[in-house]
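queue> pop job 88
queue> type: inverse folding (structure -> sequence)
queue> payload:
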């Protein structure tokens, strides 16, 4: 749900239910659009302030970054042809961001969507 801020307990409950049913869960922090941005831009190019804005997604900073790079972006109907050719870069970049891969989900800026993508691609 866009704009919803999950509490640790809510996320834990959902993750537990997914695990019990044999489902995988791929969490992005702060939002799924971070995964999309990682297809397009190298995270290391962002300075401290920009990384902080990404983490807090201040004023939809992530969407604005995607628009800046692509010229336009509709998150309700994204043009996947702009992202799919760069999926390997997104996986590499997401892994670099995953500073605590043994945690259940990213507690800092990051996304675990790459784990799901790796399962699909293998």
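queue> result:
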């Amino acid at each position: 749900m866009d704009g919803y801020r999950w509490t640790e307990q809510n996320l834990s409950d959902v993750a537990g239910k997914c695990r019990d049913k044999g489902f995988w869960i791929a969490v992005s922090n702060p939002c799924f659009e971070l995964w999309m941005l990682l297809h397009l831009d190298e995270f290391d190019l962002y300075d401290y302030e920009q990384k902080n804005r990404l983490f807090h997604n201040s004023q939809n900073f992530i969407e604005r970054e995607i628009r800046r790079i692509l010229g336009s972006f509709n998150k309700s109907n994204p043009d996947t042809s702009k992202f799919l050719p760069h999926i390997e870069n997104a996986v590499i970049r997401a892994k670099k961001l995953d500073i605590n891969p043994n945690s259940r989900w990213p507690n800092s800026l990051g996304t675990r969507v790459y784990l799901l993508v790796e399962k699909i691609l293998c």
